[in-house]
Amino acid sequence: MDAKDRQIIRALQANGRMTNQDLAEAVNLSPSPCLRRLRNLETSGAITGYGAEVDAKAYGLPVTVFVRIKLERHNEEDVQRFERAVMRIEEVLECHILTGATDYQLRVVVSDLEAYEHFVRARIHPIGGISSIDTTFVYGTVKKTAVFPAL
Question: What is the pLDDT of residue 129?
Answer without folding.
Answer: 95
